[in-house]
Amino acid sequence: MKPSETITVNSTIIVPAGETFDGKGKRYVANPKTLGDGSQAEGQKPVFRLENGATLKNVVLGAPAADGVHTYGNAVVENVVWEDIGEDALTIKSQGRVVIRGGSAQHGSDKMFQVNAPATFEIYHFTARNAGKMIRQLGGSTFKTSIYIDGCVITGMKEAIFRTDSTTSEVNMVNTRYSNVGSKWYNVRNVSESNNVKF
Ligand code: ADA
Ligand code: CA
Ligand code: CA
What we know:
The chain is mainly β. The chain has strands at 6-9, 13-15, 20-22, 27-30, 48-50, 54-61, 69-72, 75-82, 90-94, 96-101, 104-106, 111-115, 119-124, 127-137, 146-150, 153-163, 170-174, 177-179, 185-186, 190-194, 197-198. The chain has a 21-stranded parallel β-sheet that branches. The protein is globular, with a radius of gyration of 15 Å. It starts with 5 loop residues before the first strand and ends with a strand. The mean pLDDT is 98. One calcium ion is lined by residues 67, 87-88, 91, 114. Alpha-D-galactopyranuronic acid (ADA) is lined by residues 42, 87-88, 91, 114, 116, 138-139.
């Protein structure tokens, strides 16, 4: 998908509760002066903020992508492509069920998806490549998060697909092809897998 247009975002686009933002395939980039330069510096602002029950679809996030997408409560992220991950791609900021369908993300210095609150995080038919880890639960946190990965392609993770410090968090990965993903599971106590192919 080659975006037809690039839009510079000066202040975070808020998708209100229950509403859908359809980017129609356009590319969105952060204004580095107001949102962040997409480096590993903490405290950058997101390009999109999804309130409870919001949907974000058909968006290309270009460089710089600052702190990507933040979700508050339940959210759906459909056909969203991160061309060059910023500090991270998406952060679960408060409890909920977050579903990713389709899309891809690449070129992360460290984390792709950051889980900062207890969540059910479901990722379907997503392509994840070239990052430190695909999913990281906030370092030192002990809440339970449940990850479900279905029909994805995951390549080039330096450290792992999922890393957590919580003994109760769990991952179930199915129907997924993966290669070069480091230790695959980093300190994850509860893992189930079926019908995956390592290549
Ligand atoms: C790091 C940092 C946290 C938080 C997180 C994030 O884990 O230690 O405080 O900023 O990144 O959400 O990006
Ligand atoms: Ca971070
Ligand atoms: Ca971040």
